[in-house]
């Protein structure tokens, strides 16, 4: 798609927020890493429709989570439950190919929306993660069971004075999926809360 | 200076570790483990403040949150803290404190003369005196505030750090006295997540000052063992120095944890958190907040040296301080006899125990008798004598009910009067929930009312004053709370605590010790020490006709101090009941509200300060704007470039330059903040058509349409362009500020009213970055970076959109215009937002492309008469009011949202405020936005208001100022002259003109 | 600070995640143009505002973005039940 000499430069939402003050060393009590997933798609459809769930599995190789507040993962692809007819699909691949593959396979009243530019994923690890979540959100993360490599708990909730999708990984670390326009604020907030 | 009152038995303090501090500028020494109160008492400091109204000298009375007199200012400068209680300030090296009351000094007090006028300051004094004449109130207020001693608020920024923690637990135990400790242990053993909080520096509550043996060890050893046991549970969080100050709906409680205050002011050095606000959601709450001893009310009971009996014991046993030498104990109950024993054990002189009961013979009473201490039964202390320290107690025989003096008054020399009128359960937190406290005559105390939430009260705060009973109640409640939260079977797991408890005889209810003269004539018998409310004052309020306890409280100020009447309220209510000749139950109850003790603003603000006060939302090109020196404007939470000044340019100069550049060549605006909603589904067009005033049923792919959205009342709510992307797929633009509201609005109608319509909405605001290239040269600029879209007007017309590639990035390009010029709104995935922005700037260089901000955007659209929802509208404007009837579909099959309201009699009125233009007669005057409009400036006041200015600018393109305004019947008044008052008092005449100033035929955007 | 059970997320969640949408079960008239001003005004402006049992809409705005209904006691603030749009409450107040 590139024409006549353009070499498009992509900047993640945390291009400036993280590069200046990245806190990534093993002894740190809080490690913040941005995880570049090329593909973030919002998926809408009827979870009771077995054909829909089947088609999603065919295309993504991930079972559609129908239990509220859960995600299912296979390799680099994850599907998060956002609501009774709404999911987030993240994958390492580029959004366009997965989006068109899903559009191809899914029938009936469904929607696939590319939101890759609008959000990013941040991984939080270290011993401070628990208390940090308590500072950030009114949600009771302490009630969550441990995650496995294939599935775990997730929720959309308030995060500081913004909102986020929060998911717990098998290694105890936590992924935040945050909106682009709030990402600088959330990064500043995290660095402040972790000091 | 020698600490006169320090005892050999140091209690829980460390006498080897001296701590230096100053009080009112004078240097003293205390020891590690002291509170400021115990250190002052150790040094023999009698007077710690002056009273609120009469400025009488006052000394320390209590040992905790109930203290009414020892109110101090800690430190100075930015970190100074006003209105702390000396009993709650832990001593640290270098502490500096001063009394908040007492001007100029507490020992020589000019205000003391106020005391002479005591008779002139009855209850309601302020209402009666300072109300008139009203214009003098400012003078009075200054005087009263100075006299009132409210402390000094720091004027510099708070140097300390505060934060908040959202906590969830199964069982929250409030208070770590004996009942609380065993409750926490039982709940923890059952597996529940437990938080136990206590306001004191260490757990143990009353046991810290107790001589009781529990399980064969001392009380403090037993407490230490319990704390150790609790530490072993990883499901228990212990929070000392943590006051639960509010109990709110659905078992939500707030705790103020003081983390560094005991180490000194700003001990956290701006790094460590000084105070933390815990916001706790608990499944179950066990309240074990204890009780407050009730003081006896007698004449001049406010002289320094009159103290709570339990406080005297606490200073002796816990702090190793004897606040005096010769004690008289005045009591109505057995319990307080322990103080006589403690005083005697400390080697000091007990002059007498004065017991109001006729023949007390309880086990503790017998122990005191056995020590050879004189007990005056059937007697009361009716008056204290002394100035700045008690010198004697006046003791008289009382009748059986304690209501009258029956014989000769004797003077007993002493320097300390400890009093006990029994105990009042600390029902504050239970009262916060709305539970109405119930008076229980058998314990002479209120009990918590029926639970309104998932809570129970145990131990003394439940009116269970015995230690053994309190421990049983606590353990049972802990196990039960865990069970209710889903843990264990509700049975107590630990064996009962072994202890020997002495039997006690009934106490006497005595709320006012009689004097030889009635309260109205007797020396003041103080009920509320902090606010100088006396028994006589309460009786006077009744004589003046007050009957309701709530009115009497407000009239007399009873309980309105920073101690919230923790000592005085019950006595005051009983005295009121007596004056009204009714029972305490009939008189009513008292409702406590949060906060239990004062809470700092810093803790309430937490980290939501400075740059984190509110989220700042940035667009993908934000850094470019910053680098170019843009000035920013807040639009909702967004930071939008306001204008891009060149060196030394003012706002006006920059905006004039930007405006001219757009109309004469080309400008570029970051429009990424506009809300964008992706709409998909077979019923999308039908749904959108129901939401907008116009129809989208025939909008073809590749086309856009401008729409106005109404609320059901017919008033404009949002506006924007909606594009058809493909069959059943639309993209809706909203205003920047309206994005979230519009999405919620669409969801509301789809989810609740028309679930049969198949349509999905997804916010894509953040996904797309939008650059608007606008001006006569816009096409030439876009053509340089976009080769795969045919940009010729007949192929890509006004209100079309196209998919294509801009600067190598997949883009959607919309030909929509908010400036009235040829415009291309270029949308690319936001990760490429800055790149494409810079490519457009580069491409536009030869045309001197000019980045512009929101101010220029506002001017340009006002020149065109385009409205801004929320600026030119205010929620009371219909499309017709905005002269936009053209956008209302009259023949739509479905009655769109708001349609019916457009034909209500009120919306059809012809004198509604309507949008017009205003042209000032003097072309250089820019009307103030919001200015009111009148037809005749000479009309006498009240003038009839005709409307107001909604938008107003200087237009460089027009060469004169322009304004938009809403004027009553304005559309029929074109050509009329109206008048606006200016800020300087002048009146500015202006002519009503069309709201479209520039290019009225709209030719420039359509090229 | 209320705690509200979201029937979609199937969890008790804190009030901060929600916004209240006012009285529930107000059906939009099917043919608004046939109503008198007074009838339309009733639909637009008049609400029950009861002392006691109240059925109201809540929007789980930072959660699942679904609307649902709650039966709340306006005196005690107790939320007695929540239920999905399109279903009826099981608890009904007097005189409703």
TrEMBL record, chain A:
Top-level division of the source organism's lineage: Bacteria
Gene3D superfamilies, sorted: Heterotetrameric sarcosine oxidase, Probable tRNA modification gtpase trme, domain 1
Pfam families membership: SoxG
InterPro entries: SoxG, TrmE/GcvT-like
Name of the featured protein: Sarcosine oxidase, gamma subunit family protein
Species of the source: SAR92 clade bacterium
Taxon lineage: Bacteria, Pseudomonadati, Pseudomonadota, Gammaproteobacteria, Cellvibrionales
Automatic annotation (TrEMBL), chain B:
UniProt GO MF annotations: sarcosine oxidase activity; transaminase activity
Aminomethyltransferase C-terminal domain residues: 913-999
Keywords, comma-separated and alphabetical: Aminotransferase, Oxidoreductase, Transferase
GO biological process, one term: tetrahydrofolate metabolic process
Pfam families reported for this sequence: Fer2_4, GCV_T, GCV_T_C, Pyr_redox_2, SO_alpha_A3
Residues in GCVT N-terminal domain copies: 622-892
Keyword Oxidoreductase in annotation: yes
Domain of life of the native organism: Bacteria
Domain FAD/NAD(P)-binding: 170-430
UniProt-listed NCBIfam families: soxA
Family: Belongs to the GcvT family.
Name of the protein this chain belongs to: Sarcosine oxidase subunit alpha family protein
Originating species: SAR92 clade bacterium
Automatic annotation (TrEMBL), chain C:
GO BP terms: tetrahydrofolate metabolic process
Coiled coil: none
Pfam families in UniProt: SoxD (PF04267)
InterPro entries the UniProt entry points to: SoxD, SoxD_sf
GO molecular function: sarcosine oxidase activity
Protein name (Swiss-Prot/TrEMBL): Sarcosine oxidase subunit delta family protein
Native source organism of the sequence: SAR92 clade bacterium
